[in-house]
C-alpha cells in the first residue's frame, strides 16, 4: 500500500512540473503544425568547387592575381565564413603573403563565388594555400600552384610590337633580325648601314617607339658607336625598318645590338654578329686561322645600292642602254674590271695569272 502511494505521488509530481514548464517556457510543447513553433536547427556544409587564378596587375617587382574561390553550400544558413590565402615560396617554404577575406552569409543550396586579390614578388614559384573558416574554425582547405611568375610581362612592357623573327623551313635556318651592309671603308674605319625589323602584331596602332642601334666589339664589349632612331606610329599588322649608319674600326668583330624602347621603357632587344675579321676552326681542336676578308670589297658605291627602274621607263631604259653601250665603250673599258661584283677581284686575278703561266710553259715545250 505504501508502494502504491509513492508511485501515485511521483506521477502527480511529474504532471505538476510539466504544467509549470508549459506556462513558463512558451512553445516547449508546441507541435510541428503550430505556426508559432520554433524552427529546428538545420546543419550546413561548405566545400570547394573550383579555384581559379588570373593575373590582375603586373609591375616590375610585384605580380597581383585575382583568385576566384567557388564554394558549394548545402543545408542551413552558413554564417561567419572567411577565406584565408597564403602564398608559400616553393624554394624556401616561407610564407610570402597572407590575405584573409570575409564571406557574406550563405543560405540555400547553391554555389557562391568570392574574388580576392593576392600579391607576390614577381619571381620564383609559389603554392597558394586556401583555407575556409567558420567562426575561426577550419572547415575546408585546398591549394594550387603559381609557377613561372617571373615570366609574366609587366604592364609597362606589354606591347604587341617586337623585332620580327624570320624563319624558313626550306632554308633550314633563320634570317638575321639585325642586318648590315658596308657603306664605305677608309683610313681603317668602316661605315656600316645597320637596320632592324619591327612588326606590330596587335589590333591597335602603337606609338612612342624608339630603336637604339649599337656596335659592340665582341672581345671587349666596348661600344664602338650607337644611334637612336624614332619610329613613327606603327599600325596594326604593319612593319617598319629603322636604320642608321654606325662607324667602327675595321678588322674587328662586333655584335650589332638593337634595343626597342616604348614610352621610356625597354620592351625588346635583338642581337646579330658582324664579323669584319672572321676566323675558322682547323682540324679537331679549337685552333683557329684567319679568313681572308676585306670589308671594302663589299662596300657600296657612294654609300648606297642602285635600284632598277620599273614601269613606263622600260622603253627609254632600252634606248639609254644602247646609247650607253656605244658611248661608254671606250671610256669605261679600263674600269670594267673594277666594276665587277664585290669579292671577285682577287679570284679573277689569280685565274689570269695561272692561265699565263700555263701558256708560257706550253710555248717553251714546243720550241
Short description:
By secondary structure, this protein is of the alpha+beta class.
How does this model look, in words?
This protein has three helices and 19 strands. By secondary structure, it is α+β, with helices and mostly antiparallel strands. Among the domains are: 108 residues, Immunoglobulins (Immunoglobulin-like, Sandwich); 138 residues, Immunoglobulins (Immunoglobulin-like), CATH 2.60.40.10. The chain has a four-stranded antiparallel beta sheet with strand order 4-3-6-7, with no helix packed on it. It has a four-stranded antiparallel beta sheet with strand order 13-12-16-17, with no helix packed on it. It has a three-stranded antiparallel beta sheet with strand order 1-2-5, with no helix packed on it. A hairpin with a 3-residue loop joins β1 and β2. The longest helix has 23 residues. The N and C termini lie far apart (172 Å). About 18% of the residues have low confidence. Keywords: Membrane, Signal, Transmembrane, Transmembrane helix.
Amino acid at each position: 500500500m505504501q508502494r502504491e502511494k509513492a508511485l501515485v505521488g511521483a506521477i502527480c509530481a511529474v504532471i505538476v512540473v510539466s504544467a509549470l514548464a508549459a506556462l513558463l517556457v512558451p512553445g516547449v510543447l508546441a507541435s510541428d503544425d503550430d505556426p508559432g513553433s520554433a524552427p529546428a536547427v538545420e546543419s550546413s556544409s561548405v566545400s570547394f568547387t573550383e579555384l581559379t587564378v588570373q593575373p590582375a596587375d603586373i609591375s616590375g617587382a610585384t605580380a597581383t592575381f585575382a583568385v576566384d574561390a567557388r564554394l558549394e553550400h548545402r543545408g542551413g544558413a552558413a554564417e561567419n565564413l572567411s577565406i584565408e590565402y597564403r602564398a608559400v615560396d616553393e624554394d624556401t617554404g616561407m610564407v610570402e603573403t597572407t590575405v584573409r577575406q570575409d564571406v557574406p552569409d550563405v543560405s540555400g543550396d547553391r554555389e557562391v563565388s568570392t574574388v580576392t586579390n593576392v600579391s607576390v614578388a614577381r619571381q620564383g614559384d609559389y603554392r597558394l594555400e586556401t583555407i575556409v573558416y567558420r567562426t575561426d574554425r577550419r572547415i575546408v582547405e585546398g591549394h594550387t600552384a603559381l609557377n613561372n611568375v617571373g615570366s609574366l610581362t609587366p604592364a609597362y612592357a606589354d606591347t604587341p610590337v617586337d623585332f620580327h623573327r624570320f624563319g624558313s623551313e626550306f632554308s633550314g635556318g633563320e634570317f638575321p633580325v639585325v642586318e648590315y651592309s658596308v657603306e664605305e671603308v677608309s683610313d681603317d674605319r668602316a661605315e656600316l648601314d645597320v637596320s632592324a625589323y619591327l612588326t606590330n602584331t596587335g589590333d591597335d596602332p602603337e606609338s612612342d617607339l624608339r630603336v637604339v642601334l649599337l656596335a659592340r666589339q665582341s672581345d671587349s664589349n666596348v661600344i664602338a658607336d650607337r644611334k637612336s632612331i624614332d619610329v613613327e606610329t606603327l599600325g596594326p599588322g604593319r612593319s617598319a625598318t629603322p636604320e642608321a649608319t654606325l662607324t667602327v674600326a675595321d678588322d674587328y668583330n662586333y655584335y650589332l645590338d638593337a634595343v626597342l624602347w616604348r614610352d621610356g621603357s625597354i620592351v625588346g632587344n635583338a642581337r646579330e654578329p658582324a664579323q669584319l675579321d672572321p676566323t675558322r676552326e682547323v682540324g679537331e681542336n679549337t685552333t683557329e686561322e684567319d679568313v681572308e676578308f676585306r670589308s671594302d670589297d663589299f662596300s657600296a658605291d657612294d654609300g648606297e645600292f642602285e635600284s632598277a627602274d620599273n614601269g613606263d621607263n622600260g622603253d627609254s631604259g632600252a634606248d639609254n642602254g644602247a646609247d650607253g653601250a656605244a658611248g661608254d665603250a671606250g671610256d669605261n673599258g679600263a674600269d670594267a674590271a673594277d666594276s665587277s661584283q664585290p669579292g671577285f677581284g682577287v679570284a679573277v686575278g689569280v685565274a689570269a695569272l695561272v692561265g699565263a703561266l700555263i701558256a708560257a710553259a706550253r710555248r717553251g715545250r714546243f720550241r
